[in-house]
Design goal:
Blueprint (H helix, E strand, L loop, with lengths): L5 H5 L4 H6 L3 E3 L15 E6 L6 E9 L7 E7 L2 E12 L2 E10 L1 H6 L6 E8 L5 E6 L2 H9 L5 E2 L8 E3 L3 H8 L2 H5 L6 E7 L5
Parallel strand pairs: 1-10
Antiparallel strand pairs: 1-7, 2-3, 2-11, 3-4, 4-5, 5-6, 6-7, 7-8, 8-11, 9-10
């Protein structure tokens, strides 16, 4: 199970995109302020985008070291994944970059390249819900072809689009209207279970 599977657990409407592998990975971490957004720390449950009911996906964001990025432990059924999750404030946007830590071997077998999975997120004013927006690989590939952003278009229909720009170039792209327009159509939604402050 890989990160591209994430939204199929927390947003059924994303399943077609996930199964097609149409997501974006970056070789570099975007520049920007960070690394940790304390609002994410705690335990969250995935919410089905169609009926707003809880799913079986549980995501634990841990601030295990204030000098390091957040750690994300994602548990679903008998599977788990651990990610290093860096948050950035770029312009007026909240940006995340997630890199898988464990199990890397399984991710490689699933065809997921190592690097940073990029996207945007918004935290509700009451702090009880988060919405994550991944980047659509097909849309970003079109921007690469136009010279809007540096990268490598996916070699096949089911491959990832790879961004190759410098940290500053990536930050400029993520702050742009073009990046906004390149989000997947249906975001993933999480609802808070615990703040995690007593762990």
């Amino acid at each position: 199970m890989s990160l591209r599977h994430l939204c199929s657990l927390v947003a059924v409407a994303c399943a077609a995109l996930i199964l097609s592998g149409c997501f974006v990975i970056s070789k570099n971490l975007p520049a920007g302020s960070g690394p940790n957004d304390e609002r994410l720390v705690g335990t969250w449950q995935g919410i089905d985008a169609q009926d707003d009911k809880p799913s079986d996906a549980f995501l634990h964001f841990q601030d295990h070291d204030d000098k390091q990025p957040l750690r994300l432990v994602w548990v679903e059924d008998k599977g788990y994944q651990i990610y290093e999750l860096t948050t950035r404030r770029i312009g007026n946007k909240n940006v995340f970059a997630a890199m898988i830590l464990e199990p890397k071997v399984k991710a490689k077998e699933d065809g997921v390249p190592l690097g940073y999975h990029l996207g945007f997120y918004e935290v509700a004013a009451n702090g009880r819900e988060i919405v994550f927006h991944l980047l659509d690989g097909k849309k970003v590939a079109e921007l690469i072809a136009k010279g809007v952003v540096k990268g490598i278009k996916p070699p096949g229909k089911y491959d990832f689009t790879t961004l190759t720009g410098t940290p500053d170039e990536l930050a400029r792209f993520l702050a742009s209207p073009e990046a906004d327009a390149a989000r997947v159509k249906d975001p993933a939604k999480l609802r808070r279970i615990s703040t995690g402050k007593n762990w």
